[in-house]
Design brief:
This protein is 57% helix and 20% strand. It is of the alpha/beta class. The longest helix has 44 residues, at 109-152.
Amino acid sequence: MQERPSILIVDDDKEIARSLSMVLESEGYQTAVANTIKEAIEKSYESFYNMAILDIKLPDGEGTSLLKKLREISPKTLKIMITGYPILKNAVDSLNDGAVAYLIKPVDLQKLTMTIKNKIEEQKANETTTEDTIADFIQARSKKLLGKKTSFQ
């Protein structure tokens, strides 16, 4: 059985975080919730998440700084920024720092779930392509090495 993709939801509004978690779990994802940057970092060291949904305004700092930290901790985790305070600089900084999307609260749940689905499918396709490329390389290299060995005998 294939493991369900996991999503870390980081929002200081516990009701929003809980609602997002419920919606995403009903869509087939595993979720974890963090309400602070510190908690999000701890959870990211403990588990791999396919995606993180980050609020920009958090009680212990800016979500944009968390975005950068998560890029160091878990570069393969996809990140979506959400905010109730849309500022062009935050949007540009977020996208430049690796966010795959920047959404404004109240979040359109259909747009969010579609974005998550598409980005996780891309992530899986990239992983499969990488694994296939590595397997092809190993197979070609093995044949080449075996061929050289045979030619010396």
